[in-house]
Amino acid sequence: MDDSGPVWALGTMSGTSLDGVDAAAILTDGERVLDFGPGAYRAYSDNERGVLHGALGLWPGAPGVAAAAEVVQDAHRDLLADLPGALIGFHGQTLAHDPGGRGTHQAGDGAALAAALGRPVVWDFRSADVAAGGQGAPLAPAFHFALAGHVGARGPVVFLNLGGVGNLTWLDPACDGPFAPGAMLAFDTGPANAPLNDMMRARFGQAMDRDGALAASGMPSREVLHTFLGLPFFAAPPPKSLDRDAFAQLVAAVTGLPDADAAATLAEAAVQGVVRGLAWCPRPAGRVLVTGGGRRNRHIMARLSAELVCPVIPVEDVGLDGDLLEAQAFAFLAVRAARGLPLSGPCTTGVATPLTGGRVSCPT
Ligand SMILES: Nc1ncnc2c1ncn2[C@@H]1O[C@H](COP(=O)(O)OP(=O)(O)OP(=O)(O)O)[C@@H](O)[C@H]1O
Ligand SMILES: CC(=O)N[C@H]1[C@@H]2OC[C@@H](O2)[C@@H](O)[C@@H]1O[C@H](C)C(=O)O
Hints:
364 residues, alpha/beta, 13 helices, globular, ATP-binding
């Protein structure tokens, strides 16, 4: 695609919460967001989620990975078949992430998806960055920068994604592009919903602490939090990124606590990760715009508001869609990749210079 005009692109995200696949279309030239199109969601069945859960932490070639990839591809094929978009940005499902060691692994074959859908697919977004010495995540920041322009943000603003893992992007919309010096700082903040979900599933067979009701009725364990926040991850400056299960010891540490206190402790761990993360940002932000499913956790939102001096609001308050934002990001990144524009840079993944990425597979 060598045309530089706007194109309708379709992006997908199968996130670390393992709940399902989001898809969304946007009209973009890879620099600006011109319009938003339809979105859709396809939940994983319990059986499918079990296959994915069983493959977490595995690398290509290991038993179980092919079955997980098939679950991911089939779900995407079903979901995308009737959605518009000339180009598809297919993130896949992260099974393992170890940028300083074995690399990063997103299950799902984009070439097979391109053949099944008869449309070009951009995929494997993270590998080039990791191969060049970057963290391979987060990648949504370039999209956050474009969104800040789209919603007319004035002055520094933070996008905070509370998915399975948390990540934030501090950005200054006055800068000349996302990778201009001083324009952004982005990194993973710590666990967000994943430990809470895992605890709720193990103790109650429930997918989540809905609205944060259980956490709101408990008292966080100071001892567990003190140990947790003493981990080197929090003292390390950005760039930094996380595997979904990087904090398995946190879930283990709350096993002896009563239910409500365990939930309160895990919720507070997510909140304090964000609070510590914001301390790395170059200047105070005017607002924290929260996206991802965690924005629906009223307890976490209330605790963030109590801890931070600036307003903490869901992205809906500025006219965006917090359920579709990550899928939209990979539509945007697909167009950037197809046009050779950078996806990552020193201020996001820590790669030495701004770098493009992704593989483009065309239907044969
Ligand atoms: N009403 C709610 N109350 C509390 N938590 C909620 C609610 N709705 C969603 N969540 C949380 O949000 C999670 C889903 O968030 P999201 O879809 O942003 O995650 P993801 O995209 O899988 O993660 P990541 O951004 O890490 O890849 C759910 O698993 C749940 O923990
Ligand atoms: C390796 C990987 O898949 N990381 C995800 C995960 O989910 C949230 C956080 O950890 C973020 O770093 C990233 O996703 C978002 C979409 C990103 O790349 O910006």
